[in-house]
Amino acid sequence: MASVTSPVIFKEFCPLYYLLNAIPTKIQKGFRSIVVYLTALDTNGDYIAVGSSIGMLYLYCRHLNQMKKYNFEGRCESITFVKLLSCFDDLVAVGTASGRVAVFQLVSSLPGRNKQLRRFDVAGIHKSSITALAWSPNGMKLFSGDDKGKIVYSALDLDQGICNSSLVLEEPSSIVQLDYNQKVLLVSTLQRTLLFYTEEKSVNQVGTQPRK
């Protein structure tokens, strides 16, 4: 008897003009006209988050077809990484070229959800460009990595409005990827991949040979 194969679905891919048209291509700063580059991207079922070279985060709500903007206070610097999370509250973490990391707790219209935009800042442990961010599924833990090999753990208490951060690991090369699940942090650098067990503070390298 011949096996039954599932039908093939063809999809067309095209630029998201409705999103791109809501982001300016240039801004005016004094007498200068500054080109806006898109530098970071993350998506989930509710939002599309786009980071820019002018330090502005553009957050598009897919259900309401609305674009909102968030930025850091102080000097304008490029956003290098964004990471969305949808749990009890909608969260977005943002990293910049100088090592600043902030978490935005978004406003929700649903009953019992957050009704006021709040921002949490990771204290200045990172001193160089943020290259990776990873959430725990419940939004209480955020891990951030930079291009000097530092990995910072931030514990968030959204009810109390508290964010406590500490350096947990330092590698000799740039962090390129982070992923967290079940008290284990997967870390990839330019030289190696490892598993960091957050409870035991122990490291288990994946493979034996360094990357070339």
UniProtKB/TrEMBL annotation:
Q: Which GO terms describe its cellular component?
A: cytoplasm
Q: Which InterPro entries match?
A: WD40/YVTN_repeat-like_dom_sf, WD40_repeat_dom_sf, WD40_rpt
One BP term from GO: protein exit from endoplasmic reticulum
Identify one Pfam family in the record.
WD40
Q: Which domain of life is it from?
A: Eukaryota
Q: What is this protein called?
A: TCPR2 protein
